[in-house]
Structures are given as C-alpha cells and as structure tokens.
Amino acid sequence: MKILLTIIIGVCVLMMTSCKPQDGTSGATDEMEESAEAKAMLQGIWIESETQEVAFRAEGDTIYYPDSTSQPTYFCIIGDSICLGPNRYPIVKQSEFTFWMKNQAGDLRKFIKSETEDDTIAFVNQKPEILMANEVIKKDSVVFFDGERYHWYVAVNPTKYKVVKTSYTSEGLSVENVYYDNIIHISLFKGSACLYSQDFNKQMYADNVPQEFLEQAILGNMQYDHIDGRGIHFNATLCIPDGASCYLVETLISLNGNVTMKLLEY
Q: What is the pLDDT along the chain (266 residues), one digit of tens a residue?
C-alpha cells in the first residue's frame, strides 16, 4: 500500500512540474502590450510621400482626417502593426519623421511628418460633418382605377438616426462616414376615406435586403410606379450613401390597406 501511495505522489509531482512555464513566468498570456514609444512617435500631422498631401493627424489615441465627413478613429500600435478601429495594418518602418505601412490591399504607403504650421489648416474644422438631407420631400398624385379615384401621398422625412458607412482613404486606410437616415410616410385615400397611413423605415425591408448591407444603407426614396387590381405599387430605394450599390424593393399597398414587399433588383 505504501509503495502504491508513493507512486501516486510521484506522478502528481511530475505532472505539476510539467505544467509550470519553462521560462520561469507565472503563466501570463502572450498577448503583446501597446507600444507607448511607437504611439508617441506617431503624434503629429503626416503627409503622403508621393502626393505631398495631408493624410492624417495623430493626437493622443485618435487619428483625425482632413476630410470633414470622415469620423475620427481610435488607434493603437501593438507589435509591428497599427490598429485603426477593428482593422490592423502592418508597419514596415517607423521613426520620428517616417512612417511606412501596408494598407488593406497590401500596398506600401509612405508618410513623412509635417514640419510646417500651414498644414494645421486642414484640421481647422474639428467637428466631423454628418451628412443629411435638411428638407422634407413631399409628393402626391391622384390616380384612377376601375372608375374609382385614389389619392396617394408620400413624404420623405430626414431623421437623427445615424448610419455609419465604412470607406477608405486614397491611402487605403479605413474611415467611417456618418449619415442620417430617412423615414418615409405613405398615405392612401379613396375619395375622402383613408385606406392606409404608415411610416416606413429601412428595417421593415430586412426580409428583402441583407442585414450587412442594410446597416450601412439609408432609405432614400419611395417612388410611385402604377396602380392595378392588386393595389398601388411603390418602389423603395435603399442605397449605401455615395455609392452605386442599391436595392429596389416593390412596396405594394393593396386597395384593402394591406402591404407586401418584393425585391425587384439589386
């Protein structure tokens, strides 16, 4: 019995010894800490080497862009990479006045630190601009079907609902632009009787538009198409701002006041 107990104790000691870190550490994670020295060297205004245009300004832990529609981005430098928001880019070379990195396409981008006060003019407007339509767009018309008179009314209303669109600078760095979404109201009357009255927002089209696209899109317009026995057909446009990507979704309001939606094109 004593021999068996001795063997068991020996095995346990061996297992405990093998689990200890071999480098004398206490098992700390191997995650690399942020480089305060590298962040300090990046402070200031940086110029794109080839174009000699102002590219960005690093202040504290934030990158600012001269484009007033681009939102400031949090950054940190860990190991040999710079992290801008959720994106990480390899650093090829860094010194007090030189900064080389690769963008999301793997292209080498070279920057030099500005030494002139004139370049601060590019950042005079510190508050980033949020793009929005300032006016309510109203449109209406009277249409006839099967001897009956129908009056439809559409109002495109700007809101304070922010839509964040990710884009890239000419240097290939990711930036975020902020826009305001719309809510579109539709009313339908038969004579003086209201058949339908409803506000539409972009989330109502989630069954027809991929969620990833929808998150960066705005509900831009609602265009009357035609009337038939099924009802009055409108076409809703959901687009990513300043881009060519749009979804066109038919919004059909029946003469009984029911709504159905169908994707027409992308």
A: 434 334 333 434 333 333 333 343 333 333 578 899 999 999 999 999 888 889 899 999 888 888 766 778 889 999 999 998 778 899 999 999 999 999 878 889 999 999 888 888 777 755 555 445 556 788 999 999 999 999 999 999 988 888 877 777 766 677 777 888 999 999 999 988 999 999 999 999 999 999 989 988 999 899 999 999 999 999 999 988 876 688 999 999 998 889 999 998 77
CB 163 within 8 A of CB 216: yes
Residue 265 CA to residue 249 CA, distance in Å, equals 7
Beta-carbon count within 10 A of 79 CB: 15
**Whole-number Å distance between alpha carbons of 40 and 99:** 12
Amino acid (1-letter code) at residue 88? R
Residue-by-residue DSSP string for 252-264 = EE-TTS-EEEEEE
Dist CA 183 CA 162 (whole Å): 12
Q: Do residues 155 and 220 touch, judged by C-beta distance below 8 A? A: no
Beta-carbon contacts of residue 266 (< 8 Å; ≥ 6 apart): 245, 246, 247, 248
**234: which 2 tokens?**
């409108």
Q: Which of 45, 46, 51, 75 is nearest to 170 (CA)?
A: 51
